Amino acid sequence: MVRVKVPDVVVRRLVNYLRILKEKEASPEDYISSAELAALAGVNAAQVRKDLALFGEFGKQGVGYPVLMLKQELVEILGAGEPVSVSIFGVGELGTALARYLTTRHRFDKDYPFHVKALFDVNPKKIGTTVGGVKVSLVTEVSELVKAHDVKVGIITVPPEAAQEVCDVAVRAGIQAFLNFAPVKLKVPEGILVKYQDVTSDLQELTFFLRQRMER
Amino acid sequence: MVRVKVPDVVVRRLVNYLRILKEKEASPEDYISSAELAALAGVNAAQVRKDLALFGEFGKQGVGYPVLMLKQELVEILGAGEPVSVSIFGVGELGTALARYLTTRHRFDKDYPFHVKALFDVNPKKIGTTVGGVKVSLVTEVSELVKAHDVKVGIITVPPEAAQEVCDVAVRAGIQAFLNFAPVKLKVPEGILVKYQDVTSDLQELTFFLRQRMER
DNA sequence: TAGATTGTTAATCGATTAACAATC
DNA sequence: TAGATTGTTAATCGATTAACAATC
Predict the structure, then answer these.
(1) Cβ-nearest to B93 among A2, A101, A199
(2) Could you tell me if A170 lies within 8 Å of chain B, comparing CB atoms?
């Protein structure tokens, strides 16, 4: 289906378009123009049309895009309709918060695709307890559980020193993509995806622009 | 000092270079080449040199960049040396996790620049309690506390429905930059900075590329 | 000095925006 | 039909990479 190489930035915008459309109550006759969607997303209208045109012709000249249909197309394109099994490594403060957030989301929105299937930690006190209804297991069980639940994505919330090791174990167990909250660059085999998330870096970026703004 | 307009991507990389250098034990005679730093950061060597050259000439031909000096320069450039007061809006699971993370970081690393000065919530049960040693206050006190502590950055961890309102209040109180964990686009006056952070979007992006990879 | 690596210019690559014919 | 908006091509803009003279 998708033969073109889709740049990161485009995918990020598509995710955003979908979020915006989901917030819209719409009947089957409702249309939205690229200009309207662009304004809501804070981007250029030509960019919206180009982003969508990468995947097909969804609009109608003189009218715009049918809201419900476009929403459905975006779900299709992004694969946001099919469930994805997720595992969280490190049940500390942040891991717990994420586990609860994701399980709660799922409880209230049946279409929410991300299912937390396993939690891992090394602290013996935590093993066997549950968070958001999911049991905390020992990292030695990763391989078994990841295979049993066909876990595709791992969320890493262990301390930075432990991140690489945990990642290695997870990769061996068959996890294909990571969302890494530990502030370290992970070395992974070709083809394994890693997305980084780091509050300190975010704050530092904001600080830079704040200071720069003040100097003028 | 900085007169050029610095692109977002450059700042992100600078933050990364600094993190890498901080992990390095170094003596005053240690040098690092652009090639070495580039390899660690996963970017091109020419890019490292160009990023740094935006702010001055820090290297020595035939040798490289003095590690300690470069680290210091980056701290200077990013403003990572001066304390920045931060406030967290929404003391739920995620807000609590972030509050604890930031206060703990600060307790163990005196150079850590981000200080949590105030926490806000609307839940009467939480008001007056403390998290990481910081008191939870009612949102009506934002103005007073933000001014008293000269808070520059707000972290938004309230539910999506409440995010815009909280943001408005914070802007009126004088907050200049936001790290927004709520999955909604915030409308802010010209000049106020917003950085978005959303686990669901991150997972969706990863999912897209996972699926795309499998289709080939 | 010879070798290595910077700082910077020039070339390349890719992404964004403008413009407009096609068409609803 | 007249007006509006798409899909797409062409123009612009900006960021990345290659190349190399300067120099430690």
Answers:
(1) A101
(2) no
